[in-house]
Structure formats: structure tokens, C-alpha cells
Amino acid sequence: MKTTFFKISLLIALAFTFQEANAQNNHSESANDSSLVYRIDSTKILAEIILKDGNILRGNILNQSIDSVTINSSFLGLIILSRKQILSIKFFNSQNKGNQQVYTNLASRYFFSPSAINMKKGDGYYQNTWFSFHTFNYAVSDYVTLGGGFEMFSLLLGHPIITLTPKVSFPINKNWHVGAGILYLNVLVSNFNSNGLTTVYGNITYGNNQSNISINAGTSLDYPGKPVLTINGFHQISPKFGIMTENWLTPTNESYYNIYTLGGRIIGRKNCFDFGLITNPDIAKFILGIPFLSYTLKF
Known about the structure:
The chain is mostly beta strands. It has 2 domains: 2-16 and 105-298, Porin (Beta Barrel), CATH 2.40.160.40; 27-92, SH3 type barrels. The protein is built from 4 helices and 19 strands. The strands form 2 sheets. Strands 7, 8, 9, 10, 11, 12, 13, 14, 15, 16, 17, 18 and 19 form a 13-stranded antiparallel beta sheet that branches. The protein has a 6-stranded antiparallel beta sheet with strand order 1-6-2-3-4-5, with no helix packed on it. A hairpin with a 2-residue loop joins β15 and β16 (241-251). The chain is elongated, with a radius of gyration of 21 Å. The two termini are 38 Å apart.
């Protein structure tokens, strides 16, 4: 089982594509509509190109012909595409953003674990996991995100479990991102003094919003020792779906205890659904895996 999940993680890492994707739309045309060559002033139009293999490119179209399209992407530079590669082209005016379609793939996190890809200032989201855990994250700048949450059933019982998850992250270049953050966990119980559990972590991510892999390493300030590690990956195989894995390596007295999660993300314009199975050799003795399900709404 360990070998299988390790191979899956490696395949995701090797499957990287490098394109920019915040799919936005004010006007959409078929890629085979050759009249586009004559009807628009391409050099002044920002466009999103969806390829037949599911990849998405966004940038300024510099030239068009019946056979090809040349786009200047902020991430990849100048790209010449054959019309046969293109599924659709969507144009929008930078002065009119009210009807833009934004596919929310939440590159800033995986199932639980964060990546080092930062959200943009003013972006935020609400996440509901297993109908019980409620978390909120908001980017106060392009580099700083504040987050926190609570568990519903413990709240109803009068001793809520709460979390605080501030994070700092920034890009080094178009493919490398680094970050650091704090995970604070506590149970609020009357007449019980608890300082909670505070974990400090650092992370590094290679890739972009559509394909990336991250390594996180953290240690508890209350119980220092060997670091907790996570190895995570995401690959968007179509505009509205991606595969995802998150793997935890938790230290024990002798080595590490590993927990693996493999699943997918259904991507919408303002929300997404994550689903998967949590497993390891001990869990697999009884069932294939423990289901994971969460819903996220961007605000």
C-alpha cells in the first residue's frame, strides 16, 4: 500500500504542466471560428484559451490566423498554438470584470495541508469538512493569510475544538514558492486551563495553480522532536477536475507512522468539492479507506 501511494505521488509530480489558470469569461467563441481573425484587435484583448488536453492558458493574444494563435502568457511567455490544440477561446475586457468566470481550484491547500502558493489580497473561503469542521481563511495581503475554525459537535457539547492557522507565503519565481505558518489547536473547557497545541511549520511548493507538489515540515513548540512531514500533490486534468494526494508522516518513538489520502477535486466558479479515501496498512486491514468529503465556498 505504501509503495502504491508513493508511486502515485511521483506520477503527479512528473505530470506537471505550466500554465496560468484563473478562467475568466465575458465573451466566448469557438476555436475554429476563423472570423475572429478579422473581428477583433487581438493585441488589446485579454483571453483565456482552454486546450483539448484540459490545460488553460491566459494572457494577451498577439496574433491570430486560421491555423494558429499566438498568446503572451505572464507565466510561460510567448506561445504559438495550433488551432487543432484549442477547445475554446474566451475573451474579456479588463475594464469589465463583473461577469468573469473564476474556477476556484484553491491552490493554497490540499485536503487539509497547506501549499506555499499564496492567495491574492481580498480572497477568502469557507470550508466545511465532514459536515462538522468549519474553517475560514482570508488573505489580508498577497503574502499573509489568516485562518481559523471550530468543530460543530464539540461546540454543541460546550467544549469547542478551535483552530488558528495564520500563514505567510510568497513566490520565488514562476515555479517555486515558499511559506511558513502556525497551527494552533485547543479545546475550550470551563475550569480547565489549557495552553493548547502550537505547531510551527515551513513549506515549499513546486509548480503552479494547476499542477504542483509540496513538502511541509513542522514541529510542536510544546512537544519538540522529530518533525511531522507531509508530501502533497495536485494535478488538474480538466478545467473542472483535478486529482490530489496528501500523505502524512507522523513521528513515533522509533520511526514514522504514515497516513495516505488519495482523491480528487471538483472545481466550480465559486466553490469546489474535495473527496477521497484516507488509508494506511492498519486501516486497510478492515476497510479500503475512511471517506473524506469537504465543500469549499469562495467569498
